[in-house]
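Standup notes, protein team

Yesterday: finished cleaning the Thioalkalicoccus limnaeus set.
Today: Ketose-bisphosphate aldolase structure.
Blockers: none.

Input for Ketose-bisphosphate aldolase:
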Amino acid sequence: MALVNMQDLLGQAREDRYAIAALDVVSLDFVEAVVEAAEACRAPIIISLAESHFEHYDFELLMSAVVTAARRSTAPCAIHLDHGASLDSATRAIRFGCNGVMVDASHRPIAENLALTREIVALARGCGVAVEGELGYVPGVEGEDAERHPGDVVYTTPDEARTFVEETGVDCLAVSIGTIHGRMRGTPDLDLARLAEIADAVAVPLVIHGGTGLTDEQFRGLIERGVAKINYYTALADAAADAIRSAAAADPRAGYGRLTLAVRAAVRREAERVIRLFGSAGRADAVLTRCRPWREVEHLILFNADGDEASVRAMKDEGRRCLGVLPGVRQALTGEAVKPDARYRHCWLIRFSGEPVIAAYDHHPEHLAFADQRFRPVAGDRLKIDYELD
């Protein structure tokens, strides 16, 4: 399994002066393409899912594919929620398998941005999940995502960046220094001097949104000045669309399968290009050696219960409902022994997104209320153990 801790991944990139490509995916073709590109380049990547794209796919279903692809990848991967809309979005993303989250409050007044980002950090910290904050505003100009980012650019200042990082505790910071979401019109004018000052002012890796359209030289300039994560989507979407248009031109009567046949290869080529450009090719082995693996934990309780069958079933139903939505809980399952003479008749199987969730779950007030009032009074005979999955 090549899922790794995202905070470690970005810290390594910042230390060694390269950037991780955070590649937004919108379909299974994109997922397979970016993982194949990472493996071909022997590079770490961040598989990114933007809430603004959820109209194109079912988030829970695609996340299942992303988690499976990341686990079986031979290249190190992290999974990130990009431009989440709320605290609930972050909670849901962690439940489905993200080990990095970003809730976008950059368009709000600074006080609101600080307050919401602090909430996200408090939630995610208990789950061991990395948090990206954004300060300043990166607008859209044209292209598939531009309409989702209206308004004018608001540049990040070094002093504001220092204060924001200190007051929120974010693990990385997205800054505005002249990039835009979507496609560039004309020649982009980046404030690299500002970027260098921000990098000197904060101790966390920096992130750039709106990477499509920059020159190779500009990308290198960003990385030299402390950028460790670059979000990249529009050019991948354009490569996929070009492949479909070419297939349609070659065969106007082609069906869906033939029209989309070349999409994965087209997205993979563009992903490989930027991975190499960002300097992360060939870094996989070092990352796997130096970054903590990201493993789920299974919290298993075997128990016998006092009471009739209906009351025990009602207790289990209530527990699945209230425990299954706690931060970092991926699933809350109950079961019953197959053989009637088993030592324990019932079980809980609760899947945590990672080891740090154990302590947060143990002390969560809703878990304590259920355990003290509903579970422990009827389940005095029980055995509990936590497993970190290989």
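Follow-up from PR in the comments: The first strand starts at residue 20 and ends at 24.
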